[in-house]
Design brief:
With about 220 residues, the chain is mainly α. The chain has twelve helices and no strands.
């Protein structure tokens, strides 16, 4: 890759990171939710993917999964109570809005598909397209498991975090309906590592370094 391409890739990466951080701030998220789920999704992805480009796409897709919420009003996005039907209708537009943003970033077309598909469910009951099974791209199927793990084990304005065990039990219970059984099996295989990462909130330098090392090692092996 030449110097100009390297520079452009770094610029796009920096833009994506900044965009995700801006959304986390707007949603009053703490502990870099978007970076956590992106980091954790790669742990599952390495069971299915060896191509560095694909791994990067999965990382960016997971990182930017909720970027379409930028187009959702504060009254809905930050509402403390349950949403009414009209409010849910607006909230459910965020995958398509996010896709329109991410798919315009050069080199992130596959990541855009993850953004578009991240609210789909394995049994076809998700949105916006009602995809089922392997109609849903792999990155979105892996991300779905991790997003639930992070949601259950993180504090929210309306409730406190619960345990990793409770998250694991819920993920296993929803295998085959909300989640791809293969993604759930990868989660169970990586349970020990993910448990440590949840405790660390994926913020320890060694974890970030491990993620970068994984992609760089695969790149070297392909050259």
């Amino acid at each position: 890759m030449n110097a100009e391409a390297d520079f452009l890739e770094l610029a796009d990466a920096a833009f994506a990171e900044a965009l995700a951080e801006a959304l986390d701030i707007r949603e009053h998220e703490t502990g870099d939710h978007s970076k956590r789920v992106a980091c954790h999704t790669l742990v599952l992805a390495r069971h299915f993917v060896t191509d560095p480009h694909q791994l990067r796409q999965i990382y960016w897709g997971a990182l930017l999964h909720d970027v379409g919420k930028i187009g959702v009003s504060d009254a809905i996005l930050l509402k403390q109570g349950p949403l009414n039907e009209d409010e849910w209708q607006e909230m459910r537009t965020h995958p398509e809005k996010g896709y329109r943003i991410v798919s315009q970033i050069s080199g992130m077309e596959d990541a855009g598909e993850i953004v578009l598909s991240h609210e789909e469910r394995f049994d076809g009951s998700g949105y916006p397209r009602g995809l089922r099974g392997e109609q849903i791209c792999l990155g979105a199927r892996l991300f779905a498991v991790i997003d639930t793990l992070d949601a259950i084990t993180s504090d929210r304005p309306y409730r406190k975090a619960t345990t990793f065990e409770q998250a694991r039990d819920e993920i296993v219970r929803m295998s085959g309906s909300q989640f791809d059984p293969a993604a759930v099996q990868a989660f169970l295989t990586e349970e020990s590592a993910l448990r440590e990462m949840v405790v660390a909130k994926c913020m320890l330098p060694t974890i970030a370094d491990e993620t970068k090392h994984l992609i760089h090692t695969l790149e070297r092996n392909k050259s």
